[in-house]
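Can't attach files on this board, so I'm pasting raw text. These are the components:
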Amino acid sequence: MTGPITQPVPKPAPEPDEVSLPYWTAAREGRLVVQRCTSCGKAQFPPDLLCRYCQQPDPPFVGIDGRGTIYTFAIYTRSFSPAFEVPYALALVTLDACPEVRMMTNIVEADLAELAIGDAVEVTFEKRGDWALPQFRPAQGAGA
Amino acid sequence: MSLLGRQVAVAGIGYSDLSRGDAPDPRMLTLQSCHAAIADAGIAATDIDGIFEYLHADRESPRTMWLQRVLGIPNLNAYADLFATGPSGLGPPMAAVAAVGSGVCEMAIAYRTLPQREGNNGGIAAPPTSLAGPEQFTGVYGHTAGILANYALKKRRRMHEFGTPAQDYGQIALSARRWAALNERAVQRAPLTMEDYLSSRTIIDPLLLLDCDYPVNGSCAVIVTTAERAADLPGTPVLVDAMAWGTGAGADFVFADDLLYGGSIDCSRRIWELSDYTVADLDLAGIYDGFTHLPISWIEALGVCGFGEFGDWVDDGRSIGPGGVLPLNTSGGMLAEGRVQGIGLLAEAVEQLRGDCGARQVPDAHVAVVAGGGSNDCGALVVHSG
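---
Top answer:
Structure tokens for the assembled complex are below.
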């Protein structure tokens, strides 16, 4: 067993690869992008070498509206990692502009006791090492 | 029997001791279960020409080559160490059925050995400074103890989608204990009330401690051979009627198209296409209960009841308990007999169809379904007494 954690442990940063680099580069610039196939029009996440719906290679990354809906969530109330302070919410969020895309995220800036499936959320970005993560928070007011 | 080139039988089963708190050598556990299965089948170890095992960590299970060597088997015609893919403990027997059915080998042994320490997912680990591969989209969000989180995510989504109360999940946990009380091999035999279930510790909200199976030191093995060969052995063979894997669309543990059912719907459709039986013929079911969500989603996927209808169908637990319309996990399953990741449910189905289950025997049991996996890792078999 380890003793009490005295040094803050940094949360892990993403390590982009050749396929995901445009996604993480955009996130670092505060933009949410997904791959959208020019052939069949479907969006996909996580990014991959080809469109998983029609096998078109190299689907391009396009900017996407950052509004989404909570599909499901779980709340960590005990820590499995010293980097992640509890409580925190781990969620799957669907993007309103392309509901076929379901992303994993935390729900940040939220009262965790009030979270519900179907809640409107919007993207925000959290600095992480040299990169930034898309995160989602409750949508700020009607029409946000 | 439409799918296999040759008719296949499970000719023997064996368990190691199932224990908690000690730390037996996984090799010893494996020898215990394999020796027991070999004796149960009434074969010599040297009759074996195929070995299959599954592992998801590094050292929890000895490899096929080790077993071959220590059993003095001169050569193997088929083998695989299945690493963290497919329906975990059901994967090795399924691979053995495919190998024997196709004629690649004649007499296979399949095992799953899992020490208690490898069955715990709750360890606290310092994260690396960066995460590559699939984890760049999951682990960076603190998707730690990922399998537990996945089943918490599924549970909340199901409760929302169908209005499923937590008590429906509790029925699986309570039923496991009712059956385990009748099984001397089971490690967790204490009766459980719904209050016990609902007040059990939160692991990752809404997943409760008693939604999770019970880690033990254990190993289970089965002998798979042709029906023809099995007919010459002293025991009562159980025949494999149909078998299917299933992954579902967009196969992924987190991002699959169907979070709730994974590949279980496709797997169920396929197995009923292949089987000579229908769901109405089932006398019992063995469905991997690594988490309570799994039997619920499988019972619906298999068509035992409609989607979202498990809560009504289960009838306060009566449908799946002793004397019920579909006795489920009659050994107590992974939740209560102890966690050997699904292979024990096949062994239990074999014991039931042979009529060897004593106090927990399902009367006139002839046909059983055994299924495992709940994401992109599904697999199922229909077995019968012939």
